[in-house]
Known about the structure:
This protein is α/β, with parallel strands linked by helices and 542 residues long.
Amino acid sequence: MRSGLLTGFLLWTFFLNAQPPVHIIPQPVRLQLQDGAFLLDKNVQVQASAAGREVSGIISYFTGAVKQVSGYALPVKAAAVGKSIHFSIGSTEGVGEEGYVLSVTPTRIAIRASKPAGLFYAVQSLLQTLPAVRTNQVIRIPCMEISDYPRFKWRGMMLDVSRHFFSPELVKQFIDLLAAYKMNRFHWHLADGAGWRIEIKKYPKLTGLAAWRVDDWGKAWDWSQVRFNADRNKATYGGYYTQEQIKEIVAYAAARQITVVPEIEMPGHSEAAMAAYPEYSCLPHKHTFNEPGDFYGRDVHPNYCAGNDSAFVFLQNILEEVMALFPSRYIHVGGDEVDKTSWKQCERCQRRMKTEGLKNEEELQSYFIHRMEKFLVAHNRKLIGWDEILEGGLAPQATVMSWRGESGGIKAAQMNHDVVMSPTGPLYFDYYQGDPETEPLAFGGFNTLKRVYSYEPIPAELNSEQAKHVLGAQANLWTEQIASYEHVLYMILPRMPALAEVLWSTKQSRNWKDFNQRLQPHLVGFEQRGLHYSKGNFKVDI
Ligand code: TNX
């Protein structure tokens, strides 16, 4: 009896003093927990000591998120009194352009950064200490001091909206998730063989025709039955983003410190565009694009004709409209998996090779990309492309996205070109993350959570100068097999948060066991918010 009372007393005091665990992902560079807590209630006021639209946007993002979980609409004041949360822009030592300093005491939370980006990231850290969904309990934020900044400046995630289309609303939800984990590049794969997804005013057939197909391949994961839905969807399938919608998404992302990098694939992966405008291909007969995996399993793939100047004009006109919509310095021009057969069969291409002194079709591809780079550079933009752009000679200022392993990236960095690492293993999120027997059909491969978490973006082959060319890394979600947004979520959760930690936190702090522990409350949050995620069941990781 006495020992029962004692245990009860101990449990009670433990409960009163228990520090709610802080489970921030990505792990902050410096985090020091202290005794006590800031109790968030309806009397808390917010103070902004920095003016400007961007800062007030971040503050209303914060108060909006707090309102969702607490119900309190915290007032924003020029001079807050009492228990308060202070945002300020000012000098912060050692945390750089994206870093922040966050201090939580029982009466005051202070957030300081040299740029709005840092304030936004501090907000993300703070929000991760709140419940994931509406609660009627008092919210305790543990007292702590954080100073934090990212390891890499390119923390990216690509979404392929060509193979399957996702509405603007879903794209925004995707962006929200990236923002929650301090990711800052959204690579938007807007055009591929299976569908064109961006309105181009000059070429209406791209959206009138090339955005629609008969989808006889869309196997959607049936979430309620946990089995494949084998129904064949014969309806017209597709969609595209209007320029207005794109502007809105770009602004939405910018308010979350995310740059949207658009990709327009060339010279291959172009079946959809070629079906609408066959005159710009080498084989100007009928082209079709009926399947999400349209690039695969054909005899000859159409390419933009490298021997036809009007094909370049076509693409440059498209890029002009693209640049007007996307402020991103980088414009992605694809460049991967070009089937050179049509160029080999094309008289004009062969003639071009002769007049330009090009030895083979690889050099013709390089000529193609060089020409696009010249155009982009003249418009004050930078070209980025998949690692095939190295073949036949890299364009002088191009940045390489290394997907066929890291060798392309290593080579480019050794040539003093910037690089974004995105090797299929482990950064292709269309690959399996668990046992294929129980997982939804995936493209192939195995990229388990642990493999993602263990990824090191700087290859040992690079010396410290060359390593500076590695801007960061990104994961790619190709959607041949992914027809629903639930499935998108399932493929990126929780692998994306693992990648976020790889890209933000220090190399020394990486700890799989600790990450796993911090991840658990996030999984509960996903559950509570109805977000599908993989529980992971791949034995090698356990
Ligand atoms: C290769 S990665 C592709 C994509 C496919 C992907 C499937 C790359 C630049 N090209 O077209 O969707 O594999 O994993």
